[in-house]
Amino acid sequence: MTQTRILVVDDEPKLVRLVREVLTATGFAVLSTGRGASAIEMVAREQPDLVLLDVVLSDASDGYTVARRVREFSDVPIIMLTAKAREADLLRGFDVGADDYIVKPFSSRELLARVQAVLKRARRDMVTPAESEIVCGNLRIDLARRRVTVGDREVHLTPTEYRLLHELATQRNRVLLHEQLLAAVWGAEYRDDIDYLRAYIRYLRHKLEADPANPRLIVTEAAVGYMLVCPETTD
C-alpha cells in the first residue's frame, strides 16, 4: 500500500523535526520545506495527500498567499499552523481555502487527530454518490462531477464548502442541527466548533444567494441549525 504523504511547510527546524517524528512514527511519509515558493512547486510536483502550512514564513510568501496559490490548481487538504487563535485569522485561513487549523503550541495527540480527521474527510469525498444530480430552484449540483451552478453561472466551491452544501442538499427542506452538520462535514470531534460552521455558511451564502444579507436559500433556525430551502417539485 502506498504511504500517505504529508508536506510540512514551516521554517522552524525544531517544529519540523517534531512533526516529522510524530507523523513518521504513525506510518506517514513526510516532505518538508521552509519556503512558500518551494511549497507551491512541491504541491504541484509531488502531489502530497495533505499540507501542514505555517501562517508565518521567512521568505516573501506567507501561508495565506501559499494556500491561495495552491487552490488555483489543487484541492489537496490544507491545515494551517498558527500562533494566533483570533477569529479574524481563522476566517482568513478558511477564505483562502484552508480545511482546518492548529494553534501552536500543540500536542502530538492533537496533531494526529486533526491530520487523521482531515484525511478521512478527503477520502470520503472521493466516493461516487448514489444520486447524479440535485436541483434546488436555480441551484444545480452535479454530484458526479462535483460541479455547482446557479442559473447559468458556475460557482467554484472549496472542498469544505462543497461538503457543507452537499450535506444540506441531501437533506433539503429539513433543519439540520449545528452539531449534526459539524459532525457530518468536519467530524465528531468538531461538534462544538460552531465558528467553523458560521464561517462556511457565510461563504456559501455569498456565493449562492442573490442577497446574502437576506438569505432565502440557506436559512437560519435561530440557536438550532440551518436548512436548504428548495421549492417542492410536482410531476
Overview of this protein structure:
The chain is of the alpha/beta class and 235 residues long. It folds into two domains: 5-125, Response regulator (Rossmann fold, 3-Layer(aba) Sandwich); 133-228, Winged helix-like DNA-binding domain superfamily/Winged helix DNA-binding domain (Arc Repressor Mutant, subunit A), CATH 1.10.10.10. The protein is 40% helix and 21% strand. The chain contains eight helices and twelve strands. The strands form three sheets. It has a five-stranded parallel sheet with strand order 2-1-3-4-5, sandwiched between helices. Strands 6-7-8-9 form a four-stranded antiparallel sheet, covered by helices on one side. 31% of the residues are buried.
How would you describe this structure in keywords?
235 residues, alpha/beta, Arc Repressor Mutant, subunit A, 2 domains, 5-stranded parallel sheet, globular
